[in-house]
Amino acid sequence: MSSTITLPENPPPLKAQSKNLDFYYSDFKALKSVSMPVYEHKVTALIGPSGCGKSTYLRCYNRMHDLYPGNRYVGEISLLPDAVNLLAREVDPIEVRMRISMVFQKPNPFPKSIFENVAYGLRVRNERSRSFLEDRVEAALRGAALWDEVRDRLDEAGSNLSGGQQQRLCIARALATDPEIILFDEPTSALDPIATGAIEELISELKKKVTILIVTHNMQQAARVSDYTAYMYLGELVEYGDTKDIFMKPRRRETEDYITGRFG
Amino acid sequence: MSDKHLSTQFDAELSGISNRVLEMGGLVESQVAQGIHALRHLSVETAEQVLKQEERVNRMEVEIDRDLTGIIARRQPTARDLRLLIAVHKTIANLERVGDEAARVARIVQRLVANGMSSRLPTFDLGVEADLAIAQLRKALDAFARLDTARALEVLKQDDQIDREFEGLLRKLITYMMEDPRTISASIDLVFVAKAIERVGDHAKNLAEAIIYVVKGTDVRHVSLEAVENAVR
After folding, report:
1. Residue A264 falls within a domain, yes or no?
2. Is the dihedral of CA A33, A39, A41, A42 positive or negative?
């Protein structure tokens, strides 16, 4: 089965693209030749039923799968403008994660203060200047729309914050290293509607500066926040296109059945 | 292909609203037929009935619209479900206007009878135009019930028959008026009737366009017939 990919008429600049990307969890082939563009300063949503490979695809972008032996990438993910293949052996995954950071399903603040949570990536990079760190932490917290709520309590534990605030703290942590792409893996599935709204609002704000890839189970969320949508099923990319088209007039029957709730 | 949603309730809501649209369509279709019957037989009683039905049609429009808003709010439909609901919204507005046209004919019949219309005027020819319009409306509703684009396309193709009929009537009525100025008042009323019937045909055409939108996702308003044929193919 081949993918139905509808590229925009006037495509924005590319930030990354996967080319014939296969991924294996040992013998299990979880991604089958996924080729897809990721446009700069746009939000690309990945949707599909559980087990379709959308999170697996997302995690390839910051080499998250390297952590387990037996995992194997085939094909490439090219990051632009330097066209470096993120999956190449000689590319250091730590460096990849500085450029491409990730926000997870459940807020996972480190058992540290709010300040140290955000400064963590910079410390990994051996940044020591206190004033530099302070500036960057403030900028990241502002970028994550959290600064006003925590400016007077930066030394408190990150875990003291509410769920929605913790997730914004994780976004601030992701922002602190000044990444080019942020990966969101179902970032609001553990949040209430108000906190969800705040994160979605933040995503549309963030895309002015970074490129965003988001995995979501919530189709309406994909419709609300994304510019482009990719529907995946059984490890394959079924359809990729402008979000409006995918939700109004998808080209593939499979996509339509899924988004209209006919998938069974 | 699976036609059913995971939510059977959603299926029931969608088919429920489609059925209500067809019910409303059946009602306005009979309203138009009765309006024409009233004209042919100059029957004030039938005209009265048409006007009574108008209230029911208006109520149906409001009710269907309310249900429609409810489904959109609760189900957040996408793709063809969304297109269906948008089409329903447009269709009921068109059907309500068909009802208005029927009521217009009924009111003209009342006036003609009150003024003692001459039986020489060509009400028979109006009947021909009306039969075409009613057939178009029925065909469009039929196509809606089956989401049948081929039938919808036929409706679009046949619309100019009604237009030609309308132009022919107009010429005929002008001749009457020139020959006998006493018929001017009644002839003008018949021009209004002919125009109302021609509008019914236009509404049937709008319905047909909405059906093609539901099935194919292509907006075929204001495009050439060839473009519509390509979209349906």
Report:
1. no
2. negative
Does ipTM exceed 0.85?
no
Over residues A147-164, the pLDDT tens digits come to 999 999 999 999 999 999
Cβ within 8 Å, pair A249-B10? no
pLDDT in tens, A225-249: 999 999 999 999 999 999 999 999 9
Residue range(s) defining the domain that contains residue B14:
8-232
The answer to whether the beta carbons of residues A87 and A73 sit under 8 Å apart is yes
pLDDT of A195 reads 86
Domain count, chain B: 1
Helix (H, G, I), strand (E, B) or coil at A207: coil
List the beta bridge partners of residue A34.
Answer: A21
What CATH number did the domain enclosing B155 receive? Answer: 1.20.58.220
* Residue B119 vs residue B172, higher pLDDT: B172
> Please, are residues B61 and B17 in contact by the beta-carbon 8 Å criterion?
no
Q: Which run of H or of E encompasses A238?
A: strand A236-242
b/e B62-91 (16+ beta carbons within 10 angstroms → b):
eebeebbeebeeebebbbbbbbbbbbbbeb
What pLDDT, on a 0 to 100 scale, did the predictor assign at position A262?
Answer: 87
Interface contact B4, partner A, CB < 8 A:
yes
- Chain A partners of B1 at a C-beta cutoff of 8 Å? 253, 257
Distance from CA of A57 to the nearest CA of B (A): 25
**Residue whose structure tokens are 């995995």:** A215
The verdict on pTM exceeding 0.90 is no
Report the residue from B1, B78, B217 with minimal CB separation from A253.
B1
CB pairs under 8 A between A and B: 44
Whether B2 and chain A come into contact, CB under 8 Å, resolves to yes
Structure tokens at A115: 């300040």
Domain that holds residue A85: 4-259
Q: Which two tokens stand for residue A262?
A: 């006919």
Asked if residue B122 has a cis previous peptide bond (ω within 30° of 0), the answer is no
Could you tell me the CATH number of the domain that includes residue A221? Answer: 3.40.50.300
The band of B3, judged by pLDDT with boundaries at 50, 70 and 90, is confident
